[in-house]
Write a structure and sequence with these properties.
The complex is a heterodimer of chains A (425) and B (353). By secondary structure, chain A is α/β, with parallel strands linked by helices. In chain A, helix 1 crosses helix 2. In chain A, 58% of the residues are buried. Chain B is α/β, with parallel strands linked by helices and 353 residues long. Chain B has a single domain, classed as Luciferase-like domain (TIM Barrel, Alpha-Beta Barrel). In chain B, the strands form three sheets. An eight-stranded parallel β-barrel of chain B has the order 1-2-3-4-9-10-11-12, surrounded by seven helices. In chain B, strand 10, helix 6 and strand 11 form a beta-alpha-beta unit. The longest helix of chain B is centred in the middle third of the chain and has 16 residues. The chains are: A alpha/beta (425), B alpha/beta (353). At the A-B interface, helix 2, helix 3, strand 6, helix 8 and helix 12 of A face helix 1, helix 2, helix 3, strand 7 and strand 8 of B.
Chain lengths: 425, 353
């Protein structure tokens, strides 16, 4: 942990379609079809590139959430979406989330390597295992397999994808006979300029972190506190070392929910207005889904009951990502809020992912503090509304980071793996 | 069209590109823009995948290749070639609908029964989730139906984006597809219907049973070759097929016939293509250069000569359906199960809690 840390931060933008808040579609800068519009997506790619960001990132699940009040429920398929953006950009990395549970490894390996080829070596794959039962039913499965089984499958899936990417380079057939997959064949996609797409991992469970340490080059983590982030940072780097890899070869990039303003007050007002424009039940629903407990049944003015807190971190109970649940649990323990207080806090501090509401200058302080403390290698920024939020990142945040020597002035590398490596130089 | 309301006598033109062509166009995308000047109704991307031939030396997955090329050739429509081999209908429907949104309604899907680049002998069995299904006409037909239902599951008209009530979508109009067949798919899709309603659905067929199945479920059939007996049977099969694709207005799917283009035989190709285009029941021809013939040769030599002969017509219109004068497909989901309740108008903004 040192002030002698060299290199620079890695910055991605998690493009949660129009922005992370459900009311993002109500921006005057957008029209009702923006979420699937060719020009909208080109603009996102181009502004990210103007900011010399390392990558744009798309989360994904193959199922439709309720779009009644939220355009972000509508989701273009990430590999196709980024192939479109690849034609409008030259340097920015393009990270697509794809499930190891609901894909065929041959098809996905071929598609990701195709994206890598047509983008000149800018593709990344964010590996997820999918928890959502409605997604399973789109694939004829009554249920999603249990968490441990999903991670066992994910481990074999990733190894097979890597072998197939290798086959595109060598021309030699893969002969794979494993617990989940049997395959003899090879890919005929032209070789990638960066060797193969960059692997990222998003789960926060112990098996997820172990997979990250073994294979991933980036971890899209969920961290609410700097102390928790430092612990997890060391844990993943240790897994990498145990797997015979350099700790530098895996980059830790937590999500950071953002509302920015020219003063702290303006930023809070922007955040409040956007929250108030969203559906009234949004935060109650969000928390219910995340922790697998119907929060509307709780007394909003009482503290969280002990049994609810215990269930949040019990891996056996249902609910969302373990990484999210762990970080929610830690935040509640730390501040001991009533339910109402907690839901209000999450407006400014995030829930699951860490949140930040303030000025570009304060944000840069925050990034520098976490980076220099050895809690992160960078952040995956999640603006409240992309169409103007990303402009502020490009025009204000990034120049401040550059002034402090924390970020590149221009691209010196042209592949995503090249960008990641340049950060630890 | 099956009826004869059109006064046009010349045929639609299409171009089929294999893996080598896709890789070359992607490596130098400036070569893609001249496709815009051909007047072709569409380019079928990755057709070598589904035509039963040996795979080209290299390939690029067709849906992502088409998304990239459609951005570089903004006047060209693309069909992405695919088979339900290692691809699932939900993933496939989603990628093609995404492509259609991003290309402004210039896209579609051309299905075959197997993918020449894919290992294994089952449909979706390689995903390790099920035993998989046999590859064949029945499986492809089932996928065609499932995909079309998914494309209709979220009607674009449901999107109101009303700032007054703060309702983005009348979500009660979104339905499950509850498809039961070779594949079981609950739906809905993650994207709404597109600028042209649904992407165009085509089928690459090389036998009469395939044409007959395609006749029931596709907008358009590409017949592998112009053998007169096969062609006659194909026309008869299409005329007889009970199409679910069109409302009962006497239409049948468009019939395109593939014309192979080999190196150095331009005069031959032009003569052959011209004669195929003039056959009764043929709505269009699809030029299929082999790997030794470059896109530049098709665009610069063959197409202008065919046009000069008056054998093919230039297709115009913002969407692929406009170019082919195809109607929106018949509604497949009447009475389907809604996914979400009707949203309540939100009152004036107030502190949430």
């Amino acid at each position: 942990m040192s002030d002698v840390r060299t290199g620079h931060v890695i910055l991605g933008v998690n493009v949660l379609v129009l922005g992370y808040l459900p009311a993002a579609w109500q921006s005057d800068l957008l029209h009702k079809g923006s979420f699937v519009d060719a020009d909208y997506w080109n603009t996102i790619g181009r502004v990210a590139e103007r900011a010399t960001l390392d990558a744009v990132f798309l989360a994904d699940a193959p199922a439709l959430g309720n779009p009644s009040y939220d355009a972000n429920a509508g989701r273009l398929e990430p590999t196709v979406n980024w192939s479109h953006v690849a034609a409008a950009t030259e340097r920015v990395g393009l990270i697509a989330t794809a499930s190891t549970t609901l894909n065929d490894p041959f098809d996905l390996a071929q598609r990701l390597l195709s994206l890598d080829y047509l983008s000149g070596g800018r593709a990344g794959w964010n590996i997820v295992t999918t928890r959502d039962a409605s997604a399973a039913r789109n694939f004829g499965l009554p249920e999603i397999p249990a968490r441990d089984d999903r991670y066992d499958r994910a481990a074999e899936f990733v190894d097979l994808v890597l072998a197939l990417w290798e086959s595109a380079r060598t021309g030699e057939e893969v002969r794979h006979h494993g617990e989940f997959f049997d395959l003899e064949g090879r890919l005929r996609v032209p070789p990638s300029k960066q060797g193969h797409p960059v692997l990222l991992q998003a789960g926060g469970s112990p098996k997820g972190r172990a997979l990250a340490g073994r294979r991933a080059e980036g971890v899209f983590a969920a961290e609410l506190t700097k102390e928790g982030a430092i612990t997890h940072y060391r844990e993943v780097k240790r897994y990498a070392a145990d797997a015979g890899r350099s700790p530098d070869s895996v980059k830790i990039l937590p999500g950071l929910l953002l509302s920015l303003g020219s003063t702290e007050e303006e930023a809070r007002r922007r955040s409040d207005e956007l929250h108030d424009l969203g559906p009234a039940s949004y935060s109650v629903q969000w928390l219910s889904q995340a922790i697998g407990y119907d929060v509307s049944r709780l007394d909003l003015d009482a503290k969280f009951p002990e049994e609810v807190l215990a269930a949040i971190v019990d891996p056996a109970s249902s609910g969302g990502s373990i990484g999210f649940r762990q970080s929610i649990y830690e935040q509640i323990r730390r501040t001991d809020p009533t339910v109402r207080e907690y839901l209000r806090q999450t407006r400014y501090t995030g829930s699951g992912h860490s949140g930040f509401v303030g000025t570009p200058e304060q944000l840069v302080d925050h990034i520098e503090d976490w980076y220099r403390s050895g809690a992160v290698d960078g952040f995956n920024l999640q603006p409240d509304v992309l169409i103007d939020g990303l402009e502020v990142i490009a025009d204000e945040v990034v120049p401040l980071l550059r002034k402090r020597g924390l970020f590149r002035h221009e691209y010196t590398t042209d592949t995503l793996r090249g960008h990641f490596r340049a950060a630890s130089a | 069209m099956g009826d004869s309301t059109t006064t046009e006598t010349s045929a639609y033109l299409a171009i089929g590109l294999g893996g080598d062509h896709l890789a070359a166009l992607i490596a130098d995308p400036r070569q893609a823009s001249p496709l815009d000047g051909t007047g072709a109704a569409f380019v079928a991307a990755g057709i070598d995948r589904i035509d039963g031939s040996a795979p080209d030396g290299v390939t690029v997955e067709p849906t992502v290749a088409a998304a990239f090329l459609a951005a570089h050739a903004p006047g060209t429509a693309f069909l992405a070639a695919a088979a339900p081999h290692r691809d699932h209908p939900y993933n496939l429907a989603r990628r093609v609908a995404s492509l259609d949104h991003l290309s402004g309604g210039r896209s579609g899907l051309i299905l075959g029964v197997r993918d020449g680049y894919a290992p294994g002998d089952t449909a979706w069995g390689g995903a390790g989730l099920t035993e998989g299904a046999p590859l064949g006409v029945g499986t492809t037909r089932d996928v065609a139906v499932a995909v079309q239902k998914l494309w209709q599951s979220w009607p674009q008209e449901s999107i109101v984006a009303d700032r007054e009530s703060r309702i983005f979508a009348r979500a009660e109009q979104i339905v499950h597809v509850d498809h039961r067949g070779v594949f079981d798919v609950a739906g809905p899709l993650t994207v709404p219907s597109t600028a042209q309603g649904s992407p165009v659905l085509a089928w690459y067929a090389d036998s009469v049973p395939e044409v007959a199945a395609a006749g029931e479920v596709a907008d358009l059939v590409v017949l592998a070759d112009a053998d007169p007996i096969l062609l006659g049977q194909a026309v008869a099969a299409l005329d007889a097929a009970p199409s679910s694709r069109f409302a009962a207005d006497g239409r049948r799917p468009l019939l395109f016939v593939q014309v192979a283009v080999t190196r150095g035989r331009a005069a031959d190709v032009v003569a052959r293509a011209g004669s195929v285009a003039a056959r009764p029941g043929v709505d269009g021809i699809l030029l299929r250069p082999d790997a030794g013939v470059g896109v530049a040769e098709i665009v610069g030599e063959i197409v202008p000569r065919l046009a000069a002969l008056g054998a093919v017509r230039a297709s115009e219109g913002p969407t692929l359906r406009d170019r082919l004068a195809l109607p929106e497909p018949a509604r497949l989901l009447a009475g389907a199960r809604p996914v979400f309740p009707a949203p309540e108008p939100q009152s004036a903004p107030q502190p949430a809690l």
